[in-house]
Design a protein that fits this description.
The protein has 189 residues and is α+β, with helices and mostly antiparallel strands. It is built from two helices and six strands, in the order H-H-E-E-E-E-E-E. The protein has a three-stranded antiparallel sheet with strand order 1-4-5. The protein has a three-stranded mixed sheet with strand order 2-6-3, with no helix packed on it. The longest helix has 106 residues.
């Protein structure tokens, strides 16, 4: 019986040893798996951070491209308008000459087909220029505005109050609401 008891004790002891070895092996295995999980979590966090950085970089590049696109469109429009502005500035003396010719013929009571033709050319030219954004600056009877008018001199006037434009020496124009040429005027004292 004592042998049985020893055998049982030995068996119990062996099982404890096995359990301890198994526990140590499991503990080592669990520690190894924990370390792998920790490494994978760190890699995942790094990957997520890298993705966020790439997403942020992509958003910045998209915004830069939108700004570039808007800027180039604006520059393109400004270049076209600048070309129109230069051409219109060169045409203004021609418009002035046509206007003076018509006014002279009308003041002399000249009635001819030639005058009718010049008036038609003037009207069509002004229609084209107006379509491109050219507008006349109204001056006579208006208050003097240094942003639109260029005062040549002050004159006495019974008809107008002080500071009002009495006469216009040269017509002024705006192109797309910007003064292209100031109106040369005479202002009442």
């Amino acid at each position: 019986m004592s042998d049985n008891k020893n055998n049982v004790e030995n068996a119990v002891e062996e099982q404890k040893t096995k359990k301890t070895k198994a526990g140590k092996t499991a503990s080592k295995k669990n520690a190894k798996e924990s370390k792998q999980i920790k490494e994978l979590n760190e890699k995942l966090a790094a990957s997520l951070t890298e993705q966020e950085a790439l997403r942020d970089q992509l958003l910045r590049k998209m915004a830069e491209f939108d700004n570039y696109k808007r800027r180039t469109e604006k520059e393109f429009i400004e270049n076209i308008q600048s070309g129109s502005k230069e051409l219109i500035e060169e045409l203004l003396p021609v418009v002035d000459d046509l206007r003076r010719s018509i006014n002279h013929a009308v003041s002399e009571n000249v009635k001819s087909a030639l005058l009718d033709g010049v008036q038609l050319v003037y009207k069509n030219l002004m229609k084209v220029l107006n379509k491109r954004g050219l507008t006349e600056i109204e001056a006579i009877g208006k208050e003097f505005n240094p942003d639109e008018h260029d005062a040549l001199m002050q004159v006495d006037s019974d008809k107008y109050d002080s500071g009002i434009v009495v006469d216009e020496h040269q017509k002024g124009y705006k192109l797309n609401d910007k003064v292209l040429r100031h109106t040369q005027v005479l202002v009442s004292k």
